[in-house]
Amino acid sequence: TGYSLMRAPWFMCLALLVAAGTGLFAGTALADPGPRTAIPITQAKGTNGRSYYFITLSVGGSVPFAALLDSGSTGLMLLPGVIGPNDAEESNRSSTYGYGSGSQFTAAIAHGVVKIGGLVTGAPVAMRLVKTIACRQNRPGCPAAGHTPADFGFAEEGGLGSVTRARIGISLESSDAANPLAELGSGVWIIALPRPGDAGPGKLILNPSAEDLAGFTRLHADAGTLFGCVMNIDTKAQVCGSVLLDTGGNGLAVEARARPGSFPWANGAATLLALEDGRGTKTGMTFTLRHVPGAP
């Protein structure tokens, strides 16, 4: 488990602070975490209208490269050619890992030192080197369809595949590959995403200062998710459960075994997303619901 902290009211699209481990400064923190470090989070708009977010990093002695920033998955995923053969030590362990888009990857687990913004992991971290790609059986038209590792990219569905050959998953959920941010400095970081249409980049702040931390609300996270509810303010209908804040996906999606009886909610409905802390106190934001064409 770990803790997520949010700064209201724009926690969905602007600021998310995360601490690895079981407390705010617990986990893999170093005795000397190093200096406060801020690196740009750039955004690119795909042909599908979605925004994609990127940071720059390197592994071993590799040339710095852009990686898709994804708070909904765990571990660094690298397609062939991103790093050289001597930048990470490949093991004989294999990994099968997939994303919500339906794309699924078979990879070799490797270990390499990760460098982000001048900070370096204290030891090599586990990562995935992609060997094969496919679609899950229930998603035959996934972004990986018709591609090989040589010509695939992690923003393929947005027309950005050729420039998106790496993906860094920074969820708190445990996995066979590590979240590199949890191995850097204090193990605390702030994700401040650029808003859609912003001319400048956002920021990833590692080892944030007390001034950076001011104004956040502490929320308990279990395996990378929070508890919360989405409520239709007009009808008072609501859906509650685990909430995943995912920089790798845009919009709000409700996943359920059966369609909630109150659905569909009217396009333009005033909606509230409320997240609970460990004491049951809710922190939330309101927004206007807009349907995605073609979505159920």
In short:
The protein is built from 1 helix and 19 strands.
Give the C-alpha Rg. Answer: 19 Å
Provide the structure class. mainly beta
Relative strand content? 35-45%
- Give the rounded overall mean pLDDT: 84
Globally, the shape reads globular
Number of strand elements = 19
Q: Order of helices and strands, N to C?
A: EEEEEEEEEEEEEEHEEEEE
- N- to C-terminal separation? 33 Å
- Low-confidence runs: 1-15, 21-31
Major sheet characteristics: 15 strands, mixed
Write up this protein.
1% of the residues lie in helices and 41% in strands. It is globular and about 60 Å long. The chain has one helix at residues 210-213, and strands at 2-6, 15-19, 37-45, 51-59, 65-70, 74-78, 89-98, 103-112, 114-116, 119-120, 125-135, 166-170, 188-192, 202-206, 217-221, 226-232, 238-243, 270-276, 282-288. It starts with a strand and ends in an 8-residue tail after the last strand. It has one helix and 19 strands. With 296 residues, it is mostly beta strands. A hairpin with a 5-residue loop joins strand 16 and strand 17. The strands form two sheets. It has a 15-stranded mixed sheet that branches. Strands 17-16-18-19 form a four-stranded antiparallel sheet, with no helix packed on it. Residues 1-15 and 21-31 have low confidence and may be disordered.
